[in-house]
Known about the structure:
This protein has 15 helices and ten strands. The chain is an alpha/beta fold. The longest helix is centred in the middle third of the chain and has 15 residues, at 190-204.
Amino acid sequence: MWRGVIDQYREFLPVTERTPVITLHEGNTPLIRADRLREAHENRIELFLKCEGANPTGSFKDRGMTMALSKALEEGAAAVICASTGNTSASAAAYAARAGCRAIVVVPRGQVAVGKLSQAIMHGAMLIQLEGNFDKALEIVKGVSEKFQVAWVNSVNPFRIEGQKTAAFEICNQLEGSPDFVFIPVGNAGNISAYWKGFQEYRRAGRVSRLPRMMGWQAEGAAPLSLGRVVEHPETVASAIRIGNPASWKLALAAIEESQGEIGVVSDAEILSAYRQVAQVEGIYCEPASAAAVAGLIKCSREGKIPPGARVVCILTGHGLKDPETAITLAPPLHVVEANLDAAAQAMGLG
Ligand code: F0G
């Protein structure tokens, strides 16, 4: 039986037999070949989608949260705290519930997708809605964790990165080798750093012989890394990555430089177009932030940056059901018909 990432990758993680393992059996997510999406863009690459929405709370955060909560408990913490654009709070709330530990989550008011809010509420976290954006929430949470006895479980917590790096191991195992390119959305910049750490450790351990290029993608209105400066008022439809001052800024730039990768920018229109394509061409429903990675790939392919035959993985970081409201804004005119066969058939274009 799969028992989660700590059990599976214990030799690569800072845990001992005394560490209580708090797990929801996260990880082991599908890596799906995406030939129809590839063909739609006349690419001669091998394209795979890593479906992190298949984690227990619907995002990649669970890989890091199993580590963060296990270590917090080992160290005797009675409460955990995080700032979040939504997914971190959902995951922290769920793992804290499982650990019997208090969770306090601080989110920007009115800027979190409804599915994510519902998770924090259902798992019994204390939900603080801040009159301010994510960056402000992060600053406040940092201050609270320094002043009071609460464990900070944002991705500045090194145990989060340790857990999240396991996704890189999994991709290498699933492909039986390293990919050539990894396309990944960037918000607070922890995940791209975690993946790079994972790929490097797997190579050092002799499990793979090469390293991929890390291709990070931000939304146009929230692109501090590519602008090279803090964005005071970040704005994008992809609320998960609506971040103007990422905590792991330096680590992310190092990952990109060391891997000879790139940090790029896509518009909201490109994000929404990729979001719809992945759902309609491959049957995979991801959230808008995840689609930023696919939009980035489409852009790079158009610019001829990806050599034929390259093995490419896009990280679909979260499940589409997290944010049904954005999906519904894209709905075509809805058919409402009288309850009889002829009217229905006519509406179906069959009558
Ligand atoms: N994709 C999704 C679905 C996310 O929720 C996040 C971050 C990212 C990508 C970016 O990852 O921050 O490691 O660069 N969400 C955080 C949160 C900020 O609070 O849930 P990152």
